[in-house]
From TrEMBL, chain A:
<keyword id="KW-0472">Membrane</keyword>
<keyword id="KW-1133">Transmembrane helix</keyword>
<protein>
    <submittedName>
        <fullName>Sugar ABC transporter permease</fullName>
    </submittedName>
</protein>
<feature type="domain" description="ABC transmembrane type-1">
    <location>
        <begin position="78"/>
        <end position="276"/>
    </location>
</feature>
<feature type="transmembrane region" description="Helical">
    <location>
        <begin position="12"/>
        <end position="34"/>
    </location>
</feature>
<keyword id="KW-1003">Cell membrane</keyword>
<keyword id="KW-0812">Transmembrane</keyword>
<feature type="transmembrane region" description="Helical">
    <location>
        <begin position="198"/>
        <end position="221"/>
    </location>
</feature>
<feature type="transmembrane region" description="Helical">
    <location>
        <begin position="258"/>
        <end position="276"/>
    </location>
</feature>
TrEMBL record, chain B:
<feature type="transmembrane region" description="Helical">
    <location>
        <begin position="279"/>
        <end position="298"/>
    </location>
</feature>
<dbReference type="Pfam" id="PF00528">
    <property type="entry name" value="BPD_transp_1"/>
</dbReference>
<keyword id="KW-0813">Transport</keyword>
<feature type="transmembrane region" description="Helical">
    <location>
        <begin position="170"/>
        <end position="190"/>
    </location>
</feature>
<keyword id="KW-1003">Cell membrane</keyword>
<keyword id="KW-0472">Membrane</keyword>
<protein>
    <submittedName>
        <fullName>Sugar ABC transporter permease</fullName>
    </submittedName>
</protein>
<feature type="transmembrane region" description="Helical">
    <location>
        <begin position="222"/>
        <end position="244"/>
    </location>
</feature>
<feature type="transmembrane region" description="Helical">
    <location>
        <begin position="137"/>
        <end position="158"/>
    </location>
</feature>
């Protein structure tokens, strides 16, 4: 086939056109959300019949944002989500990497059995254990500063602790650790380092990529939590952002305020994603190597 | 690593213990709880002691039968017809409430069809559960192939060295990082019957010929609408997994195909696709698992309606276990759901076993 520069240019143009049209399909609801958050309700609804729905035109203001804060304790919901997400991500990185370290580098009785159990849990979807887990956490004990309590409902801990350890995170760490040079670990043992020192002085500094992957995956799961907090947290003061949304659907729904709230809880994640998009995409891709 | 240096029972267990204990407490234990609870009448808060009820919960959910309704006949043995000429049948109640058929007691009609002069009626102990079961299977059966193949097409489109291609990959993946709750709410606007963006777009494209549809309010379009949105939301996720698979295929194979003069289809058929075998299995498994877990979209968009046309297994499990505080009923649905997921992943594993 002869190479025709004009034909090549045309094909390139068509290719970009297709790519752009598909991009529009993926981006239009978000553009609509952000633009609508600045419009009064009447205009928001009227604009949906034209392209104005996707443009910041007409009576533009921040009123919906003020309204959202007046209507619901938005700051509290965001704080709850940040707290629960942050605590879970940090605890998960520590506890899962420690377990994986033991699975990957140490030899001990029962190791293979325990690792098989951990891997086997990958097949249990959370949705199939949510209801019995609800019963379990409603009866669990807890020792706080003010003594012994029974029941974990309506707390931060019920949103954090069950999500700290999971098979996928441990598995990702094990896979990564097995790729590290074993001589390095042996050498530091010979030099007299104890296992804890090997873990945090030798292995952790080499684990940047897998820590990023595990953190991003956990972050996405935790920040977007819905089903679990919906059933274990009835008290407003512990609600995360996604469940807090229900607040906007009591009584009369002000769609502009809903859009403002959605924008508030989504745009920070989108910015975070755009800044770290390579790491985000790499972390999803790495879940694909488990096959 | 076979030296004595790595042998340490004490350290090994110490490092593993926190993580393993959490997994056992919050995943393994509830899993066995689910099985145990499904054999009881446990409620979240109840003054009465919990009783063992055996397989009663399963019978309550899975009870299914077909009954035949014969036409009503007059004394002469002729079929009775009404003014419109329609054959008259006895009412179903006469069977489901009859002392003569204790096995059908309390069952309700799910659907019926005409068979000659008779009518066959499928009755179920729990019609809502049956609808949820069918909807969930339908969802997976449609979403898995459509989402999987669209994601592959996107991956092939993106897998070129083109200026700015990363930007497109970033955009296609964007809905994945947005919460499904947020996405579902936005799509309520898109599907709305009065101010919906989808109706506006379709009317603009057909110059006003298109009649507006209340996509989520109509029993025949609600589930397809939820499917379409779910495909849109997660297709970028699977695109990325396909891309990772594509990048494992050696470029020398493509060079060889080019030298042999293979067409683009032949290259795909004999180089790309065989190299994606494992990825294909993974994508299917993940979509299937996600599909059976369908909940948030339903909770935000339709609440299972209209007319139970979007009921799903997880939605029913939550509605019973949490909404009605019927822990045993919710657990029973969970166990059935898990059995289905397990069976499907075993079938998938068997179909793709190393030969």
């Amino acid at each position: 086939m002869a190479f025709n520069p004009d034909n090549h240019g045309l094909r390139l143009f068509v290719r970009y056109l297709v790519l752009c049209l598909i991009a529009l399909i993926f981006i239009f609801p978000l553009v609509f959300m952000i633009n609508s958050s600045f419009k009064p309700d009447s205009q928001l609804l009227a604009d949906t019949s034209s392209l104005r729905a996707f443009l910041p035109v007409g009576d533009i203001s921040l009123n919906n944002y003020f309204g959202a804060f007046r209507r619901a304790p938005v700051g509290l919901f965001v704080l709850n989500s940040v707290l629960v997400t942050g605590a879970t991500v940090l605890l998960s990185l520590l506890i899962c990497s420690l377990a994986a370290f033991s699975f990957a580098f140490l030899r001990w009785k029962g190791r293979d059995v325990l690792l098989s159990i951990v891997i086997a849990t990958l097949i249990i979807p959370f949705e199939t254990i949510a209801i019995p887990l609800l019963l379990l956490v409603s009866k669990l004990p807890w020792i706080g500063l003010d003594g012994l309590h029974w029941g974990w409902l309506n707390t931060y801990r019920v949103q954090i602790i069950p999500w700290v350890a999971d098979g996928l995170t441990i598995f990702l760490f094990v896979q990564y650790f097995k790729g590290l040079p074993g001589e390095l670990i042996e050498a530091s043992r010979v030099e007299g380092a104890n296992w804890w020192q090997v873990y945090y002085r030798v292995v952790m500094p080499l684990s940047g990529p897998v820590l990023a992957t595990a953190a991003i995956l956990k972050f996405l799961v935790m920040y977007n939590q819905y089903l679990w907090p919906l059933i274990v947290v009835q008290q407003e003061s512990y609600r995360p952002v996604m469940v807090g949304l229900g607040y906007f659907f009591q009584l009369n729904v002000a769609w502009g305020e809903v859009m403002a709230y959605l924008t508030l809880i989504t745009v920070p994640v989108l910015i975070f994603y755009l800044l770290l998009q390579r790491a985000f995409i790499a972390s999803i891709a790495s879940t694909g190597v488990k096959g | 690593m076979a030296s004595k240096l790595t042998l340490s029972n004490r350290t090994g267990w110490t490092f593993v213990l926190p993580g393993f204990a959490l997994i056992v407490t919050f995943i393994v234990l509830p899993f066995f709880f689910a099985i145990g609870l499904s054999l009881t009448n446990q409620r979240l808060l109840s003054p009465n002691p919990t009783q063992f009820v055996g397989l009663e919960n399963y019978r309550q959910l899975l009870g299914l039968a077909v009954v035949t309704l014969k036409p009503e006949r007059n004394d002469a043995g002729e079929i009775i017809r009404n003014e419109a000429g329609e054959i008259q049948y006895p009412r179903l109640r006469e069977i489901t409430r009859s002392e003569a058929y204790p096995q059908f007691r309390g069952m309700r009609e799910w659907f019926r069809w005409q068979s000659g002069e008779n009518v066959m009626v499928v009755i179920a102990s729990d019609v809502v559960f049956m609808k949820a079961l069918v909807n969930t299977f339908l969802f997976v059966l449609v979403v898995a192939p459509v989402q999987g193949s669209l994601a592959l097409m996107l991956a092939l489109l993106i897998n070129h060295k083109l200026r700015g291609i990363n930007l497109f990959r970033t955009i296609y993946f964007m809905p994945v990082v947005v919460s499904i709750v947020v996405v579902s709410l936005l799509w309520r606007f898109i599907y709305d019957g009065q101010n919906g963006l989808l109706n506006s777009i379709l009317q603009a494209l057909t110059f006003g010929l298109f009649q507006p549809v209340d996509w989520l309010g109509n029993p025949s379009t609600a589930l397809p609408a939820v499917m379409a949105m779910s495909i849109w939301q997660a297709v970028g996720f699977h695109m990325v997994i396909w891309l990772a698979g594509l990048q494992t295929i050696s470029p020398t194979l493509y060079e060889a195909a080019a030298v042999e003069g293979a067409s683009r289809w032949q290259t795909f058929r004999y180089v790309t696709w065989p190299g994606l075998r494992n990825t294909a299995v993974l994508v299917l498994v993940v979509i299937t698992m996600q599909g059976f877990a369908l909940f948030a979209q339903i909770d935000v968009m339709t609440n299972g309606g209209p007319l139970d046309s979007t009921q799903t297994l997880v939605f029913q499990a939550v509605e019973r276990g949490y909404g009605k505080q019927d822990i045993s009923g919710g657990s029973t649905i969970s166990v059935i759901l898990f059995a289905i997921v397990l069976a499907i992943s075993l079938i998938q594993r068997w179909l793709t076993r190393e030969r």
